[in-house]
Every structure is written in structure tokens, then in C-alpha cells.
Design a protein that fits this description.
heterodimer, A: Rossmann fold, 5-stranded parallel sheet, two-stranded antiparallel sheet, 23 helices, 10 strands, B: alpha+beta, 5-stranded antiparallel sheet, about 35% helix, elongated
């Protein structure tokens, strides 16, 4: 693996973090680095801009005045009724790449001003030449950083990628040693007085330029891949839409991915993969498994725990990770949505018998099965019919239900659900359909009867007992029963050889 | 079917010309009056227990206590105050317990109704009446109200007749005060004149009663009544439960919706009713003309009621017709047994005796012997149970179900419950799927039997058959 960042004197970053940096450079969508002081946040922006020969400036948001960014108003222009600003070495107008450092130390009223340039690359409505905006901050959740402010949600929402640069102690020892030994422009500033500066710096200007050319080469190739991938993954938007619902459900509504966030994810996924492919071609780097890369990109695209808001970032990201693992087949199967749709239906549909059907008939991954069974067994919902059907199938096909959940599932069959007493009273005009309802409840087998109790109960709970609805239910009872019976019959019970002793049939038992 | 309501009117007061009094009497009303014009169905909702659930009495009170119901000039002279519901005692009182009737009676006796009446005119009316009813008792009472004590009264009497001799209240009561004083002697005491000249000092405008009556003076507090209940309670029995209809009257048609339990005769009867009166408008719920309602009610010997009628604020209820679906259930099985380690020695011995086992020894010995018996019997009966469970599987549900039947194997065997429990414990896969081919032999039979008897191993819940 080639590390372009190492060639710029930035050590210890994982390849995937490096690719996130390159993805941001490819698309120009804003990147926010969150890390402790000394994690090379400012340095990476400076070195990358230098390597790519882009006009760069880093503003310190904790003390930068608006006039520093804008310049002073041109009095002569004002006389003529035109608003213009006098540019200077530190104004933003001609810069191509900017870093808004310490962004969470800017006062809330100044955060709004940074928002404009991050959002639209404009300031006071005037366009600039800025193409890349990165920002950096110390973690607000770290009690060591007293001066940090709460970040406005709208401002957070403008960043596409959230990157957590490593601290020295998180790195491999080799990288840590390199960090220790590295001397850059700010280090030992007077050394150059006594020896040639070129010899004192670990990374020379020439090396930086060469690395910049490699980065540019990778990005140029990646841009081509981006366009091709976009056409190839034409269902990516649908996938992300499904993912957002699943994530919201899994995190109990705490993580809501809005349209802009999903848009960022969409571009980041394509850009990241494009960068990986470009590196593979240009630098000979190994091409990682897409599903793993996708997981990394999506997790890096979700702003969780940026503020001190009591959210356990690890816990939430873990939940998102589970959702991604469940849907990972999408990336494995070359953007085929079929499996994604199945998983999506399994976790989001409210019809218990449809869930049962998916669980018992679809070829699901162990992870999906285990998660779905667990969700059902642990949830509050009455899953009697599902548990009943599943255990019937389990009796014929051992291993259908994870063995550790068998007893739990058996405990979820409420005794009331075994009889029509669980069907609510019919009310008012529904009473007219009493005979049809009674006929529906009169089924030839226990399985059909359980399905009928469930379907009629659902209908009565919703107060939707009509001739049409009952007709639909009659049909669905028949279909469900046929399908589940087929499952049961697919693997007939392996019974002991029948001896000659006569035993009464169950139907002969007096009820 | 006869429905009556109270009809109200104002009549001239017999004593004081110019003032009017409330009078009321029951009148018959039609179902159209009740449902389409909102006439209060008084005879139907009339409360025998003082509780006016419709809030009619409260509505009357609220309307009469509204500021617009008073005569402003008289109210300024404290001749108009809030009316409160008359109290009622069930002991020694002949009053009707119905709050509306009682209130109307109270209003008739205690409220004057008038229009455009000035204070001066009212005072003149009071003086005029006083002159007519002037006698010793009235004069004595007025004197007692003007004079604060006996000495003052004596002084007033002396002023009229210096020779009069009064030394006690008894002597005072002997004197006909009306011969010494005239109404004119009290003309400065206006409040006293009003109090003694009129039967009540509480006045209302004559149009105040229009707020709770229709143009004919019949009680009404709502423009329409849309719901009622018709129930058939006269022939109620175990075989024929009560039939009740919730009725909705959106206009000149009435929608009948029956409440039913899972009773075939009841359903049959409701179908008959719908066939007879519904004109093919439904099998159970049906529609009829409102005009037919009295005939239907009379022919079916039913009763009309208005459980949801409520004129006052607060939560309005809306009764619903309900029907119970037919009772069907999935068959469940269990394997209960009675004799356990904590059963009496006699009960354990009784079981051992059946199998010719030794009956002597302490309780522990008996339980041990019972466990051994179970193990022996299990070994004997295992083929029969294998045969039964080899032909069918079961699923154990962890919830108990009282309707469960005993597993139909080893029927008649005195230890069937014990042996089946042992079998189930040994043959359940995942503690749920009961099948002959699965067997857990990690515990030997006597130990398992002993654990079951001691309650250390339990077989909770019930079984359903695998299809």
C-alpha cells in the first residue's frame, strides 16, 4: 500500500482515512477533522494545498475577524454606489483552498458567517475562487477543551465527511517514531539560520511537489471512475433511501438522515470507490472489498456525537454498522437491489405474516436472521402467529429458528391468541358482517385458525370490517396457509416406526 | 309506547296582579318531537334515584342564572338571586325524587316572572297586597322586625296607646296589633314591605324559560337527539340473553344495531327482527322509518332509553353496539399430576398401594419409593409413549392454559401425568419441540422422577400439536 500522506510527512493515518481525504479533494464537498491538538489537522491541509499548488489560507475561527476574511470596504467604490472590498494577502477572494481552523471556537454569530462560505463558496453574496473548504476542531466532548462552543446543527449539516485523525499514541510504533523525528516548516524555525533549510526538513519541497503530482494523477483517474460508477450504481439512491429508514428504525429515531446527508453519502460512496480504483491502477494498491469500504464511508458521513449532547457515538455508529452489515450484499452483488429489498421488507414491514414468510423462505444471511429473530423475540409486539408458524416449521425443519431463541419464541405465543377470544368485539356497523367473520374463524386446521385469528384481529383492531376487507382477508388466509403448509410439507416429519399399540387420534379428544 | 315531557307556561299570580308564576304539566310527545325537535323525553329518562344523568335540571338552573334572565332594575335592589337545586331527603318527604320535577315545583313556588317592572311599581304592589292581607299576625311580625327587643316594641305600642299595659311577650301576643298599626306605619321600611307583601323576592324575566323549552313550552335543551337504546329485557333468561339495540337517528330513518353475545338463539332472534322490520336493509343491523319505532318497540315488548343523552358539558359518551365472534380455539394439551413430594403420606401411600409397593417408613422413604415406582412404570410404558409421540410431534408453549386437555396417551393409568412429564422432559428439543426421536439421557430415570416429585424439574405451559 502506498501512503501518499506519509510522503507529505503525515504519519499514522489509515489508508481509508487517506482515501476520505482524497474523496473530499475529488468532490470538493467539505471535510471536518475532529481531533486533539497536535494531530496534524492544520498541517495536512497546508501540505495538501502545497502539494497540489493551490492558493491556500488557514483561518483561525476563534480569532479571525470578518474584515480579515473579507477585506475593508473600498471607499471609492462606495461613493459610486458599488460595494467592493479591498483584497489583501489574507482575504478569501483569490484563495482556492481554505481551512477554517478551530471552527467550534467561533462564537455562534460568527459560525453563521462561516456557514455561507462552506455552503456556497460565497461571502456576503459575492463569489470567491474557493473550491475546497476544510475545517478542523478539537472535540467538544473532551473536557480538556474549555473554549469550545456548541456547533449549530445547520453548520454541522454542511460537512460531508467527518474525519478523526489519529493521535500519536493511537499509531503503530514505527509511525510514532516518524512523528517524533519529523521536522517541518514550523519546527525548529531558527535552524535554517545555521544550515540550509532543505537539509533540516524531513520532507523537501521537491518531494512535496512530486507527491502532489501523484495525488493529482490519482484524482484525475478517480474523476473518470466517479462518472462511470454513477452510471453503474444507478440504484444507489434507492439503497440509501432504504438504509436511512432502517437506520432510523434501528436507532429509535435518534439518527435521521436528511436528504442532504444522503446526498453527501451518495457522492462520498462513489468518490471513495473511485479513489480506491484509481489508486489500484495508478499506484498498484490492492482494491478493497467494496462492502467494507462502503461501511467506512457511510460511517464517516454521519455526524453523531459532534456536540456534547449526551449521545453515545460508539453505540449509535454500531447500530448503523449493523444496518450496513445487513444490507452489505448490495455492494457484493454489484448493485443488485433484490437482497436489499428483502432485508428492508423484513425489518420495516409491519405485517407479521409477511415477516414470517421472509424469515422462513428467503435465503438470508445468518446476521440478518439472527438480528430479525432477536428483534422479534425481544420486542413488545404480539408475535403469537409468527412464533406459532415458525415453531411449526422448526418442528419439521430443525434449525429454522436459532436454538437459543426456541424457548423465548414459545413464550411469545400468548394463550389468548390461541382462541377467537382474542378477536375484539365487532362494533356497530361491523356487526352486520358477523356471519362472514365467524366463517373466517372456522378453519380446518390449527395453523389456518391461528392465521385467521391474527388476520381478523388486525382488521377489527383497525375497525375496518367491511365486505371487501373480509374478502381480502379470506384470500390472504388461504395464501398464507398454503405457503406455510408447503414449507412444512417440504420436510416431512421423521417419525418413529409406528407400533401396533392403538392410540387415540388428537381429533378424538373431547374439547 | 307513550313518551311524555313537562310543558311549562306562565300564569298570572293570584295574589299579585302583574306578576306571573311558572306552571307545568306532563304532555304526550311523539318520537318525531323527541328525535327531530330535541324535546326532552322526560318520562323515559325520569330519575327515580335523584340522579339526573341527562343534566336537564342543571341546564334549567344554568339558564335561569344567566345574567340575561334577571330583571336588571330589580336585581340592583337585591330582588334577583341565584337559584340553587332544591335539596331532597328520602326520609319523611313526599317530594318527587326526580330532580327536574322537584326543581320545576320549586320554581313554581319561589320565583316570580315579570317584564318591564320597576322597583317603585313592585313596592306599590307589595303595599297593596299587604293592605289586603293585613291582620294581627302580619302586623305582629312586622313590628317584631322593626323593633329590636321587647322594650322597643313596648315603647312603640305605648306611643300608639299610652294606656296599654304590656309586661311580657305572652301579654304582647294577646294584643291584636293590627288595630293599633296600619301598613302606613311601616312605609319607611321598604325591605320589610317587600318581604311581607310578596311571597318571594326572586324575580326572572318571562322569556327566561324559552332557553330550555320549545315554542310550545315543552322542555328542550338540544335541537336534536340522535341516539337511543332499545332493549328487550322482559323475556330475559339463561337461554335468551338480553337483546339491546343501539339506535342512530340521523333523520326520519332510524338505524338499529344489535349487541350480541355468542348465542345462536339471540342471533336468530335478531335476524328475525331485521327481516320483519328492516325491509332488506341488513341481516343484523337494519334501517326503519322513525315513525315505525313505537310499533316496533311495542310489538317486540322492548324498552326505550337514552343512556347517552347529556345536555351539560363534560365527557360525552357514545354507547356502541357490540357483537362477540364465535368461540373457537386451538386445541392445547398438558400432563398434570397431583401426587408430589409435599403431598400427604396417605396420598403417597395410596399411590404405592395401587402398585403393591411397601408402605412403611418415613416420608423420605415413601417419596423415594414413589420415584422408583415412577422409573419402573416409565420403563414399562416407554414403548407406548414412543409409539404415540413417534406418530406426532408437539410444541410446548410456556404459558399455561386452563382449557388444555390431558395428552391422550396412557389414559386410565394412575401415574399418567407423572410418566408423561418424565417423557416430555426427556424428549423436548430446545425445551420446546417434543419428539420421540430426540432423547436426553443425561439424567437417570429415578433421579429425574425424584426431581419432578420435588418440583425441581417442572413442565410449565401447554402443548400444541405439530401439523
Amino acid at each position: 500500500m502506498t501512503s501518499l500522506l506519509k510522503q507529505l510527512g503525515i504519519y499514522g493515518w489509515k489508508q481509508e482515512d487517506e482515501n476520505l481525504v482524497l474523496s473530499s479533494l475529488l468532490t470538493g464537498d467539505p471535510l471536518l477533522m475532529i481531533g486533539a491538538h497536535g494531530a496534524a489537522k492544520t498541517h495536512i491541509a497546508y501540505k495538501m494545498a502545497q502539494a497540489l499548488a493551490k492558493r491556500f489560507i488557514a483561518y483561525d475561527a476563534s480569532k479571525a475577524l470578518f474584515e480579515d476574511v473579507l477585506g475593508f470596504p473600498n471607499v471609492e467604490s462606495l461613493k459610486n454606489g458599488r460595494v467592493e472590498y479591498v483584497p489583501s494577502a489574507v482575504t478569501v477572494w483569490d484563495k482556492q483552498f481554505i481551512l477554517v481552523d478551530e471552527i467550534n471556537r467561533a462564537l455562534p454569530e460568527l459560525q453563521a458567517k462561516w456557514l455561507e462560505i462552506i455552503r456556497s463558496r460565497k461571502i456576503m453574496g459575492f463569489p470567491t475562487e474557493v473550491k475546497w473548504v476544510w475545517a478542523a476542531m478539537n472535540p467538544s466532548t473532551d473536557s480538556r477543551y474549555n473554549g469550545t462552543q456548541i456547533m449549530d446543527a445547520a453548520l454541522i449539516g454542511r460537512f460531508s465527511i467527518f474525519l478523526y485523525p489519529p493521535e500519536a499514541l493511537d499509531m503503530e510504533e514505527d509511525d510514532r517514531i516518524r512523528v517524533v523525528e519529523h521536522i517541518n516548516g514550523d519546527d525548529a524555525p531558527s535552524l535554517g539560520e545555521w544550515v540550509e533549510s532543505a537539509t533540516s526538513r524531513t520532507v523537501s519541497q521537491a518531494q512535496t511537489g512530486e507527491t502532489g503530482q501523484r495525488v493529482a494523477q490519482v484524482l484525475t483517474r478517480a474523476a473518470g471512475h466517479f462518472v462511470r460508477l454513477r452510471a453503474q450504481f444507478d440504484t444507489l439512491g434507492t439503497f440509501l433511501s432504504r438504509l436511512s429508514v432502517l437506520v432510523m428504525k434501528e436507532t429509535d429515531g435518534k439518527v435521521k438522515l436528511d436528504g442532504r446527508r444522503l446526498g453527501f453519502m451518495y457522492r462520498n460512496l462513489l468518490a471513495f470507490r473511485a479513489v480506491e480504483m484509481a489508486r489500484n491502477e495508478a499506484l498498484g494498491d490492492e482494491l478493497p472489498v467494496f462492502s467494507e469500504s462502503a461501511k467506512r464511508v457511510i460511517l464517516a458521513s454521519i455526524p453523531v456525537g459532534i456536540n456534547q449532547d449526551g449521545i453515545n457515538k460508539e453505540e449509535f455508529l454500531h447500530k448503523v454498522e449493523i444496518c450496513l452489515d445487513l444490507l452489505a450484499d448490495y455492494f457484493r452483488n454489484g448493485s443488485d437491489l433484490t437482497r436489499t429489498e428483502t432485508i428492508y421488507r423484513l425489518f420495516t414491514c409491519s405485517d407479521l405474516l409477511e415477516k414470517t414468510r421472509i424469515l422462513l423462505t428467503e435465503n438470508l444471511s445468518e446476521l440478518a436472521k439472527s438480528n430479525a429473530w432477536n428483534d422479534l423475540a425481544e420486542g413488545d409486539r404480539d408475535i403469537s402467529v409468527l412464533a406459532y408458524v415458525a415453531l411449526q416449521v422448526e418442528a419439521h425443519r430443525p434449525g429454522t429458528v436459532p436454538v437459543e431463541l426456541l424457548e423465548k419464541l414459545a413464550g411469545r405465543i400468548g394463550s389468548s391468541s390461541l382462541s377467537s377470544a382474542s378477536v375484539p368485539l365487532l362494533k356497530n356497523e361491523s356487526i352486520e358482517h358477523l356471519d362472514e367473520v365467524n366463517r373466517l374463524l372456522d378453519q380446518p386446521s390449527d395453523l389456518e385458525q391461528m392465521i385467521a385469528f391474527h388476520r381478523v384481529r388486525e382488521l377489527a383492531d383497525r375497525g375496518q370490517i367491511t365486505a371487501e376487507a373480509l374478502g381480502r382477508v379470506r384470500k390472504s388466509i388461504r395464501q398464507d396457509a398454503q405457503e406455510f403448509k408447503r414449507l412444512v410439507q417440504a420436510a416431512p416429519v421423521q417419525t418413529e416406526p409406528v407400533a401396533t399399540v392403538a392410540t387415540p387420534a388428537l381429533s378424538e379428544v373431547e374439547v | 309506547m307513550k313518551i311524555t315531557t313537562q310543558k311549562l307556561r306562565l300564569e298570572a299570580d293570584k295574589e299579585v296582579q302583574g306578576l306571573r308564576r311558572l306552571r307545568f304539566n306532563p304532555v304526550e310527545v311523539t318520537v318525531e318531537d323527541v328525535f327531530l325537535r330535541g324535546i326532552h323525553p322526560h318520562s323515559v329518562v325520569r330519575a327515580g334515584n335523584q340522579h339526573d344523568y341527562t343534566g336537564m335540571a342543571d341546564t334549567i338552573l344554568a339558564k335561569l342564572n344567566e345574567p340575561t334572565a334577571y330583571l336588571p332594575e330589580l336585581k340592583a335592589h337585591n330582588l334577583g338571586h341565584e337559584v340553587a337545586a332544591p335539596s331532597y331527603s328520602i326520609y319523611g318527604c313526599n317530594d318527587t325524587p326526580d330532580p327536574v320535577d322537584r326543581l320545576l315545583k320549586y320554581l313554581a313556588e319561589n320565583i316570580y316572572f315579570a317584564d318591564d317592572l320597576t322597583y317603585e311599581r313592585l313596592l306599590a304592589m307589595a303595599i297593596e297586597r299587604l293592605r289586603r292581607i293585613w291582620d294581627g299576625a302580619v302586623a305582629r311580625n312586622m313590628l317584631g322586625n322593626v323593633a329590636r327587643d321587647f322594650a322597643s316594641m313596648r315603647e312603640m305600642l305605648k306611643r300608639k296607646n299610652p294606656d296599654i299595659k304590656v309586661t311580657s311577650y305572652a301579654e304582647l301576643d294577646e294584643i291584636d296589633v293590627s288595630r293599633l298599626f296600619t301598613v302606613d306605619d311601616f312605609l319607611t321600611e321598604e325591605q320589610l314591605l317587600l318581604s311581607f307583601g310578596l311571597e318571594s323576592r326572586n324575580f326572572r324575566r318571562t322569556d327566561a324559560i324559552q332557553a330550555f323549552t320549545d315554542e310550545e313550552g315543552r322542555l328542550r335543551a338540544t335541537p336534536r337527539i340522535e341516539r337511543c337504546q332499545v332493549s328487550w329485557g322482559y323475556e330475559r333468561s339463561g337461554k335468551m340473553p338480553l337483546i339491546a339495540y343501539q339506535c342512530h337517528v340521523p333523520g326520519r330513518q332510524i338505524r338499529w344495531m344489535p349487541s350480541m353475545s355468542d348465542n345462536a338463539r339471540q342471533r336468530e332472534k335478531t335476524r328475525d327482527v331485521a327481516r320483519r322490520w328492516g325491509k332488506r336493509s341488513g341481516r343484523y343491523c337494519f334501517t326503519s322509518d322513525l315513525a315505525d319505532m313505537p310499533t316496533i318497540i311495542e310489538e317486540l315488548r322492548m324498552r326505550l332509553s337514552f343512556p347517552d343523552l347529556k345536555y351539560t358539558g363534560g365527557e360525552k359518551t357514545e354507547s356502541e353496539a357490540t357483537a362477540q365472534v364465535r368461540q373457537k380455539a386451538v386445541l392445547t394439551f398438558d400432563a398434570p399430576f397431583r401426587i408430589k413430594a409435599d403431598s400427604s403420606n396417605e396420598a403417597i401411600k395410596d399411590m404405592l398401594r395401587r402398585f403393591d409397593r411397601k408402605l412403611t417408613g418415613r416420608k423420605e422413604d415413601l417419596v423415594q419409593r414413589l420415584a422408583e415406582l415412577m422409573a419402573d412404570q416409565y420403563a414399562m410404558k416407554a414403548p407406548e409413549m414412543d409409539q404415540f409421540f413417534g406418530a406426532r410431534q408437539f410444541i410446548r408453549l410456556t404459558h399455561e392454559r386452563t382449557e388444555s386437555k390431558r395428552l391422550p396417551v396412557l389414559q386410565g393409568h394412575p401415574m399418567a401425568g407423572h410418566l408423561l412429564t418424565m417423557y416430555c422432559v426427556r424428549h423436548m428439543r430446545g425445551n420446546v419441540v417434543l419428539e420421540a426421536k430426540h432423547e436426553n439421557t443425561s439424567v437417570n430415570l429415578p433421579d429425574l422422577a425424584e426431581a419432578i416429585l420435588a418440583g425441581r424439574v417442572r413442565l410449565n405451559g401447554c402443548f400444541v400439536a405439530v401439523e
